[in-house]
Amino acid sequence: MKLYLQLFFALILFPFLVQAQAVNTPQLGKSTVKEVIAAMTLQEKAQLVVGATELKKASSTENGTTIGFTEQRVPGAAGIMAAIPRLGIPALIVSDGPAGVRINPIRKADRSRTYYATAFPVGTSLASTWDTKLVEEVGRAFGNEVKEYGIDILLAPGMNIHRNPLNGRNFEYYSEDPLISGKMAGAIVRGIQSNGVGTSVKHFSGNNQEANRNGVDVIISERALREIYLRGFKIAIEESDPWTVMSSYNKLNGVFTAESRSLLTTILRDEWKFKGFVMSDWGGGRDRPAMIRAGNDLIMPGRPGQSDMIVAAVNNGTLDVRSLDESVERILNIILKSPTFNKYAYSDKPDLRTHADVVRRAAAEAIVLLKNENKVLPFSNKTKSIAVFGNTSFKTIAGGWGSGDVNKAYVISVIKGISNAGYTVDNDLKKDYLHYFTRDSAVQMAAGAKWPKAALEMVVPDSTIEEKARTCDIAVLTIGRNSGETSDRDLEKNYHLLPVETELIRKVAEAFHKRNKKLIIVLNVAGVVDMKGWKDNADAILLAWQPGQEAGNSIADVLSGNVNPSGKLATTFPLNYSDVSSSKNFPGTPVEKPLSVIYQEGIYVGYRYHDTFKVPVNYEFGYGLSYTNFAVTSYSISKPSADGSFEINCRIKNTGKLAGKQVVQIYIAAPTSSLDKPAQELKAFGKTVLLSPGQSQQMRFTVRGQDLASFYSDKSAWVTDAGRYEVKIGFSSRDIQNTASFVLKNSVVVGKVNKVIAPVLPLNEFKP
Ligand code: BGC
User: Fold this and answer.
1) Is 100 exposed, middle or buried (0-12, 13-18, 19+ CB in 10 A)?
2) 43-335 placed in CATH 3.20.20.300
3) How far is the CA of 289 from the centre of ligand 1 (A)?
4) What is the CATH number of domain 364-608?
């Protein structure tokens, strides 16, 4: 009887007891984050700081994308975080990448529809717009896709510095200049995050090559690190408050960034006040407890046994549980903001049509007109029939490969764009090219290739070229270059044009010029290319970069004059590869698999090197032509305050015959003192609105005293030196319209920082 009663009460009361316990268990969002952490077991904390791929028995790879649990939620997304349902903590989804949402377009579980995402212009292309408003608008469209495809955090933007043109991932990044990089990253983050989703600003920091990216030790001076490689990240963080930062694969002066407390805590949090969390790159870092100690809060993508390592480290006293708690707290604070936590009912139907229009507009604004002899562009009314040459006129490249790739529904080729614009394209040539591609891939498949590689440039018979020069009004010839993750570009095969390409250019130029007809070259490239031996053959050169899925339409918009080009180089085109300041120190030693790379050029990267050391270039930083002309009709600079802050006011007038936009660039030459200084540095920029002929616009720029400061390693301080400052208003770094100057009476220490990440050996850095 007694037993019977006990059983009776247990059965009746048990559910209530369980419920009571659940009610008492803190729940994320209902209880404070601190209460949730207090209720977590050590195992749960360790679980939360490790990506959830480890929960799956095996991970697999499809299309180069890690598939973990994401397969059930957003197939193809790069990763998923851990969930702890007991505490109301859901798993967030993270997905690549910088040029568009990288998910699988076809789902095994749902064959009824597709899940394509928009391929936006790549980072280098966006930077060439020099238009932060436009980039923010791109970000808004981009973020909408992130949200509507059920993703919480986008693994973008990539914002490493273009230290060397051979870096395989430069296309994902913006510029050789930290101000442009920081402003662009800030703009896109603001746009994306305005949708209520997160970003991950990456790769923090010094990941400027793919060669042994997981092991290479970047040996760098404190000054170059602060002035060039960290500066852009600082600007982006201050201006956009990204939810997360991704640490990089490489070491900085001997320590993996993912394990560097100096980088992730002292600089990022203590100095810069970053509030979000840091995640590792996929498989980055080695020592898991050290990563948590450093402030690398989330270990991605997560592998079996990694959370056990964290638990063991806490138990054996090598990891203070307070460090772990801090990481958990930072992660929970972001989870609280996420769409998944807030149960956002995503549609899986972003407005791809509207976003395609944004892509077309942004890519056209990014196109840089490098050459336009005798105003051959825009096409005149007499231009009707066009002979289109070059493989990539037909197989136009929207973006690079690897995690920066996007599964897009289509890419508008150059030839399609030209014919969409109403021109007659030569159909025989088109047939020849298409036939060539079919044959080439059949040959590759027969030889056992699973994915046929891009075909070598087709050799067009001389007779065909002659005939087209006779029958068509003008020639358009596209040169294409692709690159991507895990390898750098080959100097001979990728940076230089191949003989088959220069031959094609030469022959087409000869045939057309003989008949007084012109040749336009379109560069559909992932990065800077060599121009020797072919540049002079082109009447016009249009640098389209990798413009995203509307490629051909954007290019045709500029060819036809529908859009007046206003893009400017955010990266220099040198005369020779050997004129790149890092050319002798790239990718490091030993060359086959570099263990270390010395940044001997110090702060002299890109134009900072060319201008200071007076090295001639092909096309300078900030360069880009327009179909119209501009002038600065008036300007003034305000009297600087005691710390050197001042304002520049100038009026820009369209003095030509077509409506257009101009980018106004403010360069400053600072006085040298005990420290050498670059000849000039970009300190502010802005783009006009579309100005009609005769119309003008007043532009105002504010330069803060701290923007003028240089980093003194011996003092661990930013100092604005006393002396004469030259202020230049330019349309490029070498097309200076006006110059003014002022004298700063006393030096100002604008910021003391911590002495961290110093190289152990002298670097013998370049000195002017
Ligand atoms: C790349 C990251 C990317 C991650 C996830 C890594 O290989 O370096 O940029 O976000 O993979 O796909």
Assistant:
1) buried
2) yes
3) 21
4) 3.40.50.1700
